[in-house]
Amino acid sequence: MSRKKTKVAIVALVLLAIVTGCVIDSCVADTKGVSGTVNIAGSSALLPLAQSAAKTFMDKNPDSVINTNGGGSGQGLKQVSDGTIDIGDSDLFADEKLDKKSASKLVDHQVAITAIAPIINKDAGVKSLTTEQLIKVFTGKVTNWKQVGGNDCQIVLVSRPSSSGTRATFEQYALKKHASQSNQSLETDDSGTLVQMIQSVSGSIGYVSLSYLTGDPQVGIVSINGVKPTLKNVYNGKYTVWSYEHMYTKGQPKGAAKAFLQQMLSKEYSKKIEAMGYGVASKLLAAAKATHANK
Length: 295
Hints:
Layout: H1 3-30, E1 36-42, H2 47-60, E2 64-71, H3 73-82, E3 87-90, H4 100-104, E4 106-120, E5 128-129, H5 131-138, E6 156-157, H6 165-173, H7 191-200, E7 204-209, E8 220-221, E9 223-224, H8 231-235, E10 242-250, H9 255-264, H10 270-275, H11 286-290
Parallel strand pairs: 1-2, 1-3, 5-9, 6-7
Antiparallel strand pairs: 3-10, 4-7, 4-8, 4-10
């Protein structure tokens, strides 16, 4: 081999080594785990998804800590606005709970949609209620299930607190803006606890996100005007009792919070969202969007 050819070969080998080194370094950088702590609180309807997403994220990034809590949409919005948490979960838009100035400082990340279903103790013997019947039940004008075609059983309301985003959504879309009657002896914003109450209290009725009704929840799921509360009926616009699920940050997210939200909004994670009983906003048809066009 001539000296000229030898030099060319050596240069080629050096360039190959440099390129290979760059690729390896790039791979290491791409797989480097995210570190940091993210505190999340708010909507109980969104809590199961937040908890599951947190576990998935921490499994992939063992140097990160994602703390998730409920407390209601109002509390989540207040805390993220105050800067005491990193992400505030909410069933409502921020300006529905906060003043205009505070809401304007928050960034909205719409991670899913949730349908809210009326649920009853099986002693009630009711499978479907009209909107008018539902309003009468939750405003206390009807007090026995036999008055709406069910069993001779006293109606017991299980209430949500005023800070609840699930309550606000249910009152707006299921009760047509009628305020539901309060029952302080049976009031909770913990959706899991609410399902347990409905299971154990004869004649009881409440409402909960579909994400708490996967599997066999041992409660009756009530249709409204004959329409079942399913994701399919939400997507096609037939079932209107649903809300966007928001994760709010104060300003643009950074670090672990940003990476966590990127996971939540990724196309591959949408399958997990539906498997847990939540909906994917991109699947809403025009008819469904029109029912919530005011927001």
